TrEMBL record, chains A, B:
The keyword Transcription regulation applies. InterPro entries: Bact_HTH_transcr_reg, Chorismate_lyase_/UTRA_dom_sf, His_ut_repres, Tscrpt_reg_HTH_GntR, UTRA, WH-like_DNA-bd_sf, WH_DNA-bd_sf. GO terms for molecular function: DNA binding; DNA-binding transcription factor activity. PROSITE patterns: HTH_GNTR. SMART domains: HTH_GNTR, UTRA. Residues 12-80 form the HTH gntR-type domain. The keyword Transcription regulation applies. This is Histidine utilization repressor. Gene3D superfamilies: Chorismate lyase-like (3.40.1410.10), Winged helix-like DNA-binding domain superfamily/Winged helix DNA-binding domain (1.10.10.10). GO terms for biological process: L-histidine metabolic process; negative regulation of DNA-templated transcription.
Length: 255, 255
DNA sequence: CCGCCTAACCTGTATATACAGGCTAGCCGC
DNA sequence: GCGGCTAGCCTGTATATACAGGTTAGGCGG
């Protein structure tokens, strides 16, 4: 009667392991959009779990838009899970170099710290867990263009602090260690606090664009970061399709 | 034992009825952000369902970002935040109504004008072409929440100005006339000019989120708009996957 | 050959039960 | 009075089971 055995891998939860396997097969291309996914009873047999557990895995993937289910028919891979490049997660250094400018990173802080409530919550770790923290100012032609305050999950990228952030941005390093499978951006306009203002070299009343970004690799949160940009000088763009990327003056601005 | 009786109301599914009741209490204000929600066992007693069913209702509401749960503590109403999805275009009136609030539009201006260089460029028309222009302030519960300055391509929507924008948002009207096939969002943080500040009722130094949006129908630019939101209160969100929309305190903010 | 019915398979919902582990209030002993 | 332990409540996960209703293929009878 199949005791509730602990699964072997690092991830203990059965429904997560089922989700990860299906996501991996989609990522590898073994499962194509429109393809039929194993039915609940097939997953029960394959993973040795109960049907409710298989159901939960499939239902959550449906919620997330990965799968499409219909009673009596089966479960299928959603057609358009490739909405690529909508709002790119891009390496700030690439963006700067693309403009033909020079990029330089100044590492202000890099070290270990204990996660406070907010950080623990964001990284899905327990309160007080040790996390890695870095504070980097990115310069474009010797002018500050972004302050990056980052917290990294040591379970995913244990050697984060040994990277040299002057030659490789945290983003570059982390995508190498753990490919990004999901992201979240929350954008706000804020009045920067004095420290940020100093790093960005801003006047007192200059607004700031603050992007809170989290990235996942599989089911694990890899990192979260607060990115501060000097307000009006920076544009964050999101497009539905690749083109038209033709730059246009924003109304109300002198070109 | 408790037989699996059919619930009385139109909605038969138990977990849906539990979700609806909780959502109703939040909409009515009986449950405020941060308030504790009935525990699973309390719902079991109140609705006569099994714990798994109560669990499902609460878990789905957590997925949807309505509730926040933590083991050992309980289930709580998520802090309300105003947010807009950057990766899709929605009707602001719908968003407000979904939050259980009332929407009202104040038409400040509506008329014809000749396109200046920026507008002509954005709408892909020639300089000096006649375009339609509207300036609308959207109110949520009688508080200004968005200033919408819009320019419309008369070749696509010639009757734009005859619409009644108090009963139908420009977005609603335009999507009816010309379905959106592509869009572009450019986000900046700006210091609002005095007029915008007045419309939004902001203090002098309060930053603003400005979204420049263009939408296409086929190959033609339908409209472009400058949307101003009160800065730190408003969040633009972009995520690669639908769930989990579990709200997380942005680092550095008190929740 | 065609139409109907059924068996097999699928998801959707619901139940009762179990064990784990986080958290807290209160009691007990020192 | 104070520290530590425990009982009780909470969520998280997992199990086995049940019945419903949608869909399809195949078999049986006219």
């Amino acid at each position: 009667m199949t005791k509730a055995v602990k699964p072997a891998a690092g991830e203990a939860r059965h429904y997560i392991r089922i989700k990860e396997q299906i996501l991996a097969e989609i990522a590898e291309g073994k499962l194509q959009p429109g393809d039929r996914v194993s039915s609940e009873s097939e997953l029960v047999a394959a993973f040795g779990v109960s049907r409710m557990t298989a159901n939960r895995a499939l239902r959550e993937l449906m919620f997330e838009g990965v799968l499409k289910r219909s009673a009596g028919i089966g479960t299928f891979v959603s057609p358009k899970h490739l909405d690529v490049d909508l709002l790119q997660i891009r390496n700030i250094a690439d963006e700067i170099l693309e403009r033909g400018h020079t990029h330089q990173a100044i590492v202000v802080k890099a070290g270990l710290m204990k996660a406070d409530a907010n950080v623990a919550d964001a990284l899905e770790l327990i309160l007080g867990a040790e996390v890695m923290h870095s504070l980097i100012v990115h310069m474009e032609n010797d002018r500050p263009i972004q302050v990056e305050e980052r917290y990294v999950n040591p379970l995913v990228a244990p050697d984060y602090l040994s990277a040299d952030f002057r030659s490789m941005t945290p983003h570059e390093y982390l995508t190498e260690v753990a490919p990004i499978t999901a992201f979240e951006h929350i954008v706000q306009a804020v009045k920067p606090d004095p420290a940020i203002r100093k790093y960005l070299g801003l006047r007192n009343d200059h607004p700031c664009l603050r992007v809170f970004r989290r990235t996942w690799s599989g089911e694990a949160v890899v990192t979260c970061a607060l990115l501060y940009y000097p307000g009006a000088q920076y544009r964050l763009e999101a497009r539905s399709t690749k083109g038209p990327a033709r730059p246009v003056a924003i109304l109300g601005e002198k070109q």
